[in-house]
Amino acid sequence: MTVSTTDNTALHDDNSQTQPLRYPVICIDGPSGAGKGTVTWRLAQALDYQLLDSGALYRIVGLKAFEAGLVTADTSQAIDEMAVLKLTQSLDIAFVPNNASGRVDILVNDEAVGEQVRNETVGGYASQIAVFPKVREALLKLQQDMATRSGLVADGRDMGTVVFPNADVKVFLTASAEARAERRVAQLSNAGQTADFDAILTTIKARDDRDENRSTAPSKPATDALLLDSSMFDADEVYEQVKKHCQSQGIIFNS
Predict the structure, then answer these.
(1) CA–CA separation, 70 and 88 (whole Å)
(2) Degrees to nearest 5, angle at CA 111 with 102 and 149
């Protein structure tokens, strides 16, 4: 996987000077639609850290698995885990920050797939392939490698529990399924797309159930994470609360 990196100050492991240098890691976990992407982007911009959208990784694999005929919308259909693993290992993925749009452009094998990856249906494919241990292991190494290059803000569901258990800051950001469905409807409507609230709510609840109850790396807050419900907060209020928590954990902001 290819990522954009920046120069940040590496930290020595406190236990031994023989340990390798490491960079600060901030984990923002929680379900889709809770506002993780927005706060992750703002933190990365403010701190000049690298950004990791782990959910996009699974969506990328889900999209490519669908295009290869390995998964379908029928969740009762058996999926060949080894075929999905082989596909995963063949992908060249790049996250490229786009300051004009305030989003991260996603390239897979040099093809822009950002809009496809963010499609609600693709989110369902991602949830289907995320249950496979071998696929998760392959993506785990890719994600952990990113923390050896620069400061990192990681957005996902198990960043603080599985991928970066020793992260400097952990936040678990959530919101009610209804609030998240309303946000998705507004997002789609603003993009000129048709949005069915009931259908989106059903999809969100089904995805939550799969993510929270899967046997491998279920979505849950780390024991040392800040728990924050964004249902009644706007993006600015969420960001300020997370920023304040980061500062309390020793992360220094220039502004």
Answers:
(1) 12
(2) 60
